[in-house]
Queue: 2 jobs
Job 1
Amino acid sequence: MSTPNRVYIARLAGVAVFDPNGDQVGRVRDAVARMRPTQRPPEIVGLVAEMPMRRRIFLSINRITSIDPDAVVLGSGTLNLRRFEKRPNELLVLQELLDRRVQLDTGQAGSVVDVAMECSRGGEWALTRVAVREQTSRLTRRGHLHQVEWDRVRGLGVVGDNRGTANLLAVLEDMRPADLANALQDLPDARRNEVAAALDDERLADVLSELPERDQVEILAALDRERAADVLEEMDPDDAADLLNELPPPEQDVLLDLMEPDEADPVRQLLRYASGTAGSVMTSEPVILPPDATVAEALARIREVQLSPAVAAQVFVARAPLTTPTGRYLGMVHFQRLLREPPADLLGGIVVNDIDPLRTSTPLTEITRRMATYDMVGMPVVDRNNRLVGAVTVDDVLDHSLPRDWRDRDAAPTPSATDDGTGDDD
């Protein structure tokens, strides 16, 4: 194996995994160690890699030919795509050891910030060193960092409830919300709720939108109600409405009352529409501009970073007022058309209105059919007075067309018939 003799595992989080042909198969999410009955340090048996579609698989350490800070390379052989499940007496290093409160043999208390695995001359990998930061009572000073042998640290062999979250959050901070949501599903409930509570409101809102409904409700319930309301305010109104729909009506009312009125009003409106209709799946905050706005103004608007690609794919044109429900709906302009027109041209001169908008009562099956027929990324939704009240985008359709548990890792498709049904891939 062409690799450094010692590797600190937190530095591997997110590193790409490549097959022998140089094709990326996933990214490292953790290392799996096997506890031993003697006092010897735990043996590393493999890595956990996350593949596309959020599937996490086990990579035997014997299959890995190279490990470095930029890439993990696999050797030849068939890749076992069976979903990883931790076995008895196994330890997920980052999930279970990072932030663990421990004590050095000198008596100094501290917390684990990283763990190193090291390869012996015989080719066996084991956890050998631990990076521990001292606890200090001085708020303005970080404790000294010790890198010590495994057997000099007490408290590593027993799972405790007193672990913090700072170092784990540092490992997870660069993940996309969908990947972070997937990582949270791997944590024990108490640990998951602790990490979720430590996220800022905007980040937690993004992550909640990527979790199964059951996990969303459990995390929200673990927050105090004022914090839960703050997080709901940061969510898109349609996502917040979907989450509130999973709660009993009295709890919905309490949280809506705690939200700022300007944030709660569009959510209340969405909750009034029947399930499975355009009104229930639409976003009430599409990009809306008046007909006298210029192409340049429209392009600047859709460049705003907080807009999702589906929402930014088109501009809807309406008379004032420009917040939903708007004045009379006039039509829409796709961003590709904006790129082809002179910047000074007015939207009113290039607006397209030859496709009938959706009504709030249009069923999901009809929405899907029409979007597929016209190759639309988003479609307007109007009320009986032809006022724009929202837009249905392709991600809304996918979210509500897939099975309710599609985000749940436990509900993923079963492995192919070529999988051998074991937890190892060697």
Job 2
Amino acid sequence: MEAHGIGGQADLPISLELAVSGAVAALVVSFTVLVVAWRRPRYDGQPVTGRLVWPPLDAFVSSVAFRVGARVVGLLLAAYTVAVAVAGQDNLTNPFFGIFYVWWWVGLVFASALLGPVWRAISPVRTLNAGIAHLAGSDPDAGLVPYPERLGYWPAALGLFAFVWLELAYEYPTELGSVRFWCAVYVGAMLVGGAVFGNRFYERADPFEVYSSLIAKLSPWARDEEERLVLRSPLANLATIPPLPGLVAVVAVLFGSTAFDSFRESTFWVKFYQGSSIDKVYLDNVALLCFVLLAGLLFSGGSALTPPGAEVSRRDLPRHYAHSIVPIILGYIVAHYLTLFIDVGTQTLARASDPFGKGWDILGTAAVEPSYWFSYHPQTLATIKVLAVVVGHVVAAVAAHDRALALLPRKDQVTGQLPLLAVMVTFTAGGLMLLFSA
């Protein structure tokens, strides 16, 4: 795929040092204000409420016709993707690569942040599992056996790592056969898992549904206790993420892989592997794993160093704070992949109109070309980068602070948060340096 770089240090309207200093200062000031003005938990453990949306909108979104329509859209998109994967040309002009790496991986994040859990609504594997269960006369929600709660999100974490490994560390990420094989394994695993464990399997183990659902917690949409569509603060939504086993692993994979994607384009890494006798693929594999482990260990260490309360053990603290990393992940996705999504996504739309390279224009988009607007406005791009990272970390600090007030003993509610604050400052400074070193 095309490089993910979206402008380097020279594009900043201010120096990198000033950008990092300002971002860290914003985080520290935010924490100080929170300590003074936010002394009781507002979301954690509180009743889930929200403002009811316009009743006709709720009725439309809740209707059977809307749900069926979403499933049909998902199946049509999946059928089209299978067609171009099987019968398309084995080169980069095949829209399959753009659909897989850009529309699915990056576009799903933006769609979920705006609209809610999109993949849950359109997931073709959920639809196929429901159809198979209907033919067999069984309940797709129940499956054959209950999903083991001790597994939590661990299968999703492994699936997400498998995807980022294919994209960032595998030797042939744009070899048609390899990507087709990955998709076949994914579909097979999802159908078998759904048949055995029911729909709970998709909530916990489908890497794309878990990713989409976590990001969707930053959208303003939610359902209240009576299943009515409401508008709600994203912070209130974030607080409803269940602290299940494997949640830290999920956020570590997402955050660590994005950081590695920036690092592998840096001048330091390029010079290092060019001057090394070790194969680049091996180095990329080791570095990707190290970035993911480092992200998980730093966060787990900072969380575990906060004093445990009466209800949560020190061992379980990291997963109770892990929801606060989701805004940081979204911030880095915006900062790192925005131009990739706009430019390569537009190219994919043009190529999708001629899926088999026969000169067709079935969608009427064959002549569409990316404008590369950000290439001509690097200062605007740099500003968006910094703002996305800073806003993501500030929102994360608010979410962590609110959870800390609910978990920490009263005497430790200020000093007890300092280890986690130190980790977030490290993420802020390190993330900005990586983004602008590419």
